[in-house]
Amino acid sequence: MKIGVIGTGYVGLPTGVGLAELGNEVVCVDKIKEKIDDLKAGKLTIYEDGLEELFKKNIAEGRLNFTTSMRKAVTGADVVLIAVGTPPHPITHEADMKYIYAAATELAEYLTDYTVIATKSTVPVGTGDNVEQIIRTKNPTARFDVISLPEFLREGFAIHDFFNPDRIVVGSNSEKATALIKELYAPFADKTNMLFVSRRSSETIKYASNAFLAMKIHYINEIADFCEKSGADISEVAKGMGLDSRIGNRFLNAGLGFGGSCFPKDTMAMAYMGRAVGTPIELIETTIAGNKKRKEKMAERVLDAIKQIPHAKIAVWGLAFKDGTDDCRQSPAMDVIAALLQHKADITAYDPKAMGTACQLLGDKIAYADDMYAAVKDADVLVILTEWKQFAAADLNGVAQLMRNKKILDFRNMLNPAEAIKLGFEYRCIGKKID
How many CB atoms are closer than 10 A to CB 271? Predict the structure, then answer.
């Protein structure tokens, strides 16, 4: 098939590469010329584990192309995926649909043969109806169907998730569109669940799923706070909970709270939709407020650790919102750093992949180290904010030799408490009472 992908971000680019690897002819379009120039030159504009190899392979084999021309991406396409951003509105926090509707308006002009328009972005209920109306108004003779095809790719694991989906949800009100999508995803038919539902149900599934996972994260963080006061160990408690098949063991890692490009905006959008239809979803509202306070509380712990140290230096390991990605959007690490900077904190940070994206956001407000050991040189406290595996394997004896004061705040529970304490560190983590 010929596939057009509108948007080359953390959803559009891995999806386009994956579809090309399945043998389709994929054309990705983006309005940012500099980004397209880089992609055409074989330079990735985002980091995703496993993406680079497939990206270069499919460019070399001619199945993956990039353009700034909507005409080239849409004309003759069997399926067009809309994968542009839906950022939160700055005032209402509802999903801002201007990029979705702009894409629908522009692509309508270039529809020739029958085309399935699939909204891959996370969009509010009823968006498919609006996109359909926009296209029909712009091009009354066009033959097309609009479907909802929500993405379930985890940042940092997007390529793995594309080829190993736990489910494929298709919201379609058209048998013809359904048949075409079944053909597109035929390679996965025998190894995953394909759920075909109404378009509005599909649009709801994505939001409901993300909001539930966000609530699960917030819940385990509250239980972690309880464990710290009661003497229980959150890792043991989470393991025991996770053995219950009704609960499961995923998203039970206590830490800083949730962040990234999905959970914060999707919980706010879901809460807004609930209020808009007269059914406030109080669990989600509470989760949003609690998650904000969580990061403030973590910053307060850092400030408390250095309150007796004049001109304290803080070392930070981790800037991305989680391991496996360079994305710093809504990163809890960045939120904690921002709170510390309000108190004029002296911070030197290191992240294996996110130094560039973090620098775009923070500029020279903090210092950047070449590696994790350089970050801790002469530091008074080390704060671990992202769960990169290399941090867990750190040479703590070497860290101890480099630091001025031996304090560690392990907000991702990466290190061995007994080892840290044996080396003379004042060590604190999440959900455990360390004597």
Answer: 23
